[in-house]
Write a structure and sequence with these properties.
There is one protein chain. The protein has a two-stranded antiparallel sheet with strand order 1-2. It contains five helices and two strands; from the N terminus they run αααββαα. 55% of the residues lie in helices and 6% in strands. Strand 1 (65-68) and strand 2 (72-75) form a beta hairpin. With 127 residues, it is mostly helical.
C-alpha cells in the first residue's frame, strides 16, 4: 500500500494516517472498501499494532473510515457536511506552508499557479 519514512519528523502513526487519507482522497481506496486488519497492516509495515489502531481511530474520528465490530474497518462514504472553521484553518495553514516551501525552492508565482491549476484539473472537478 505505502511505505513509511523512518527518518521523517512525523511520527509513524501520523504517516499512516496521512498515507491512508491520501489513498482515500485519491480514490485508490473507494467508499466501502475494507481496510487491512490492524494485525495485517502492522505486520506489513512492521510496526506495533497499537500504532495502527491509533491511526484507524484518528481516521474514524475525522470521518474517513468506520468500524463494524467483528467485520473490520471500511472507507466511509464522503458526507456532504459543512467543514468546521478549525478544520478549514488547519488546511489553510498547511497550504500556506507548502506555498512557502515552493517559493523557497525557487518556483515563481506563475509556476505555482500552473501547478495548482493542473492539480485541480487532474481532480476533474471543473464545476
Amino acid at each position: 500500500m505505502f511505505q513509511l519514512d523512518l527518518k521523517s519528523r512525523k511520527t509513524i502513526y501520523e504517516q499512516v494516517v496521512d498515507n491512508l487519507k491520501e489513498l482515500i482522497i485519491a480514490e485508490i481506496l473507494k467508499p466501502e472498501d475494507k481496510l487491512p486488519s490492524v494485525r495485517e497492516l502492522s505486520k506489513t509495515l512492521t510496526v506495533n499494532p497499537n500504532t495502527i489502531q491509533k491511526a484507524y481511530r484518528e481516521l474514524e474520528s475525522q470521518g474517513y473510515v468506520y468500524t463494524v465490530t467483528g467485520l473490520g474497518t471500511f472507507v466511509a462514504v464522503p458526507k456532504k457536511t459543512t467543514i468546521s472553521p478549525a478544520q478549514l484553518e488547519e488546511i489553510r495553514n498547511r497550504i500556506k506552508n507548502d506555498l512557502r516551501e515552493l517559493y523557497f525552492l525557487g518556483l515563481n508565482f506563475g509556476e505555482i499557479k500552473e501547478m495548482v491549476l493542473q492539480l485541480l484539473e487532474e481532480r476533474g472537478d471543473n464545476k
